[in-house]
Write a structure and sequence with these properties.
This protein is 33% helix and 21% strand. It is built from 13 helices and 18 strands. Bound molecules: guanosine-5'-diphosphate (2 copies).
Length: 448
């Protein structure tokens, strides 16, 4: 399901991350939880009154490791304005947070100016209204020219439920992620890794013909093309540069745009700069791709700039695999958007990845595979208790999903789950696709 997105916008210190944590509560933040990365608490899944949605704290939204929250007031303002612009472009609802302790500041007015142009719901939320006096002070924010200010205390959880009630009333329904008939490929990655160059290189390939059938794409920045008789939609996140020119440096904050593109795609082409290698932000984007259950191809671009000997490719591959070990199933392609070297392979691999999502392992072969797996490597025992794998089947799902009926699912150790996944991959590949393994209890015949 494509969940609607609520974006939190506002100056530093108004309480965005406090509100974020309150809204997602016990729910998980979408993180690339790997060693060496800072935990990314910017995207979180939340639910309220039976509705599921994603909350994004735009406060730290920078898709560039060099673009961490800037120090100078001018740079800060540019950053917050960029975030506001992206929020109204990409989110389904925008929560504009201000601080009643500080009152209306010039920066609030600047942000409000952008948000007044929004065609989607914008909620002006006055935070730190911890007591009656402060709640009354909230009226001051009427002057921002937005709707009625809503007073809350994110810290104490006062007013946040009412706020969510209001937001949810106007939030679009979740749209089922039906497998699109035409493969949708999103080109994502940090600024300057070569996303636009890759798009152009793909379009420049002999096999590619830009489709002249209008109206088939879902977004203005989508490019539809025909590749060897196969229709494809490329979702271009670099296009933000063109669109966002009114606000300088906006592409540095394109993380929300990347997230939206990933949501809409079947397969993400994660572009990485060969010279820079894998940075924390690359890991974050990879984390979103995994969290959204999408296919992935790792595209190492600017390969022309790397001095190579016979070990370079293997050494590079090893390092990338290690740094992106949570998407170890992703194919890696080394390309040069500049010289067009192997650009063709990017699309070929992406189409193979998409096929992985539609492949169904025959049940009898799957059960034979499980028997062989158990014979090769029996599950470890826990006291007298032994895990028994009774029956396995692949079921319908947005990603390849396997159900294993077992005697007691508490006996399934994650290393054994990993082992089973590896066996399935060794047999059928499922290249570039995350797998979902579900364990269900069922009594074996002997016990019945
Ligand atoms: P952000 O920079 O916008 O993400 O702001 P934070 O969430 O980090 O909050 C900045 C400071 O404001 C922290 O010290 C919070 O504890 C404090 N704060 C956040 N919400 C409230 C609130 O409702 N009332 C009060 N009194 N303080 C708050
Ligand atoms: P984007 O911000 O990710 O869209 O990156 P661009 O496509 O604008 O490329 C950023 C810079 O890298 C530009 O100066 C490109 O000319 C350069 N570039 C992109 N791909 C390659 C490549 O394969 N090799 C080399 N040498 N330069 C590249």
């Amino acid at each position: 399901m494509t969940k609607p997105i609520i974006a939190l916008v506002g100056r530093p210190n108004v309480g965005k991350s406090t509100l974020f944590n309150r809204l997602i509560g016990e729910k998980r933040a979408i993180v690339a939880d790997t060693a060496g990365t800072t935990r990314d608490r910017l995207y979180g899944e939340a639910d309220f009154a039976g509705r599921e949605f994603i909350v994004v704290d735009t406060g730290g939204l920078a898709l560039d490791d060099q673009a961490d929250l800037p120090g100078t007031p001018a740079a800060m303002l540019a950053g917050v304005r960029a975030q506001a612009q992206i929020a109204i472009d990409e989110a389904d609802a925008v929560v504009f947070l201000v601080d009643v302790e500080q009152g209306v500041t010039p920066n609030d007015a600047e942000i409000a100016k952008i948000l007044r142009q929004a065609t989607k719901p914008v909620y002006l939320v006055v935070n730190k209204a911890d007591n009656d006096t402060r709640r009354q002070d909230a009226v001051e924010f009427f002057q921002l020219g937005l709707d009625e200010p809503i007073a809350i205390s994110a810290l104490h959880g006062v007013g946040t439920g009412d706020l969510l009630d209001k937001i949810i009333e106007h939030l679009p329904e979740e749209t089922p992620t039906e497998p699109s008939v035409i493969p949708h490929l999103a080109i994502v990655g940090r600024p300057n890794v070569g996303k636009s160059s890759l798009l152009n290189a793909i379009l420049g390939e002999e096999r590619a013909m830009v489709s002249d059938i209008p109206g088939t794409t879902r977004d203005a920045l989508d490019t539809e093309l025909v590749w060897d008789d196969q229709r494809i939609v490329l979702i271009d996140t670099a296009g933000l540069k063109k669109r966002g020119q009114i606000i300088p440096g906006i592409e540095k904050y394109s993380s929300l745009r990347a997230f939206r593109a990933i949501q809409r795609a079947d397969v993400a082409l994660l572009v990485i700069d060969a010279q820079a290698g894998v940075l924390a932000q690359d890991q974050h984007v990879a984390g979103y791709i995994l969290a959204e259950g999408k296919g992935v191809v790792i595209v190492i671009n600017k390969w022309d700039l790397i001095e190579k000997d016979e070990h370079t490719l293997d050494a590079f591959t090893d390092r990338i695999r290690q740094q992106l070990d949570f998407i170890a199933y992703a194919p890696v392609v080394f390309v040069s958007a500049k010289t067009h070297q192997r650009v063709k392979q990017v699309i070929e691999r992406a189409l193979i990845v998409r096929e992985s999502f539609h492949f169904r392992a025959p049940t009898s072969e799957l059960n034979q595979l499980v028997r062989d797996a158990v014979a090769k490597h029996a599950p470890s025992t826990k006291g007298k208790h032994v895990l028994k794998l009774l029956y396995a089947t692949q079921v319908e799902g947005t990603l390849p999903t396997f159900v294993f009926f077992v005697n007691d699912k508490r006996l399934v150790h994650f290393t054994y789950e990993r082992f089973l996944e590896n066996q399935i991959r060794a047999r059928w590949g499922f290249e570039g696709a995350p797998l979902k393994l579900i364990f269900r209890n069922r009594r074996s015949n002997a016990e019945e």
